[in-house]
Specification:
The complex is a heterodimer of chains A (111) and B (115).
Chain A (H helix, E strand, L loop, with lengths): L3 E3 L3 E4 L5 E7 L5 E8 L3 E10 L2 E4 L6 E7 L2 E6 L8 E8 L6 E2 L3 E5 L1
Parallel strand pairs in A: 2-11
Antiparallel strand pairs in A: 1-3, 3-8, 4-5, 4-9, 5-6, 7-8, 9-10, 9-11
Chain B lengths: L2 E5 L2 E5 L4 E8 L5 E7 L5 E7 L5 E3 L5 E5 L4 E6 L8 E8 L9 E2 L3 E6 L1
Parallel strand pairs in B: 2-11
Antiparallel strand pairs in B: 1-3, 3-8, 4-5, 4-9, 6-7, 7-8, 9-10, 9-11
Classes of the chains: A mainly beta (111), B mainly beta (115).
């Protein structure tokens, strides 16, 4: 079974804090993705990575950065958290000729 | 550019009734199409995918979808709804090419199943 592990299910942070969301996979897949999910907007791609140290911006990268130092781990960083970044964050992975598989998500609240 | 439109943000059916969730896509190249389901407080789970083989695709939990190029549609159906089908459903499209094979998602349809 594919396993995509997101470090926290629920997280509460304060405005201005630097926030790290971690995603770890056990499938040795090249491609990893970060989405945010908001009611009525579906899932929107923030960043993705197709190899170690490689990244590309998605549709809504502003206010976020990412890090992929090892193949199995893809981190999403909120440089200075703001209340409009309160959302559900979903990590996904994809192998060659495979569909995307998702983690259970992190529900992040910024107060 | 590609996009997905899901008609109806909320759909309600009776248990045992037909489930029909609508998805229309726009793509400049032959699309790859997916349906995902999300149960409360969980991530997305793949229901089924279309990748240019058979136009009628069968998925898990009794769901199926038919790719209709002339209508640019990929509607999801299930003959008989069960209470356990209550969830949010997302249609997604990909152009199947490189760059991580990005998905573009619709805004989702919340399915309610009533007794």
């Amino acid at each position: 079974d594919v396993k995509v592990t997101q470090s926290s299910r629920y997280l509460v942070k304060r405005t201005g804090e630097k926030v790290f969301l971690e995603c770890v996979q056990d499938m040795d897949h090249e491609n990893m993705f970060w989405y945010r999910q908001d009611p009525g907007l579906g899932l929107r791609l923030i960043y993705f990575s197709y190899d170690v140290k490689m990244k590309e911006k998605g549709d809504i990268p502003e206010g976020y950065s990412v890090s992929r130092e090892k193949k199995e781990r893809f981190s999403l960083i909120l440089e200075s958290a703001s209340t409009n970044q309160t959302s559900m964050y979903l990590c996904a992975i994809r192998g060659a000729n495979q569909p995307q598989h998702f983690g259970d998500g992190t529900r992040l609240s910024i107060l | 550019a590609q996009s997905v439109t899901q008609l109806g943000s909320h759909v309600s059916v009776s248990e045992g009734a037909l489930v029909l969730l609508r998805c229309n896509y726009s793509s400049s190249v032959p699309p790859y199409l997916f349906w995902y389901v999300q149960y409360p407080n969980q991530g997305l789970q793949l229901l089924l995918k279309y990748t240019s083989a058979a136009t009628l695709v069968k998925g898990i939990n009794g769901f199926e979808a038919e790719f209709k190029k002339s209508e640019t549609s990929f509607h999801l159906t299930k003959p008989s709804a069960h209470m356990s089908d209550a969830a949010e459903y997302f249609c997604a499209v990909s152009d199947g090419t490189g760059g991580g094979n990005k998905l573009t998602f619709g805004t989702g349809t919340q399915l309610k199943v009533e007794l």
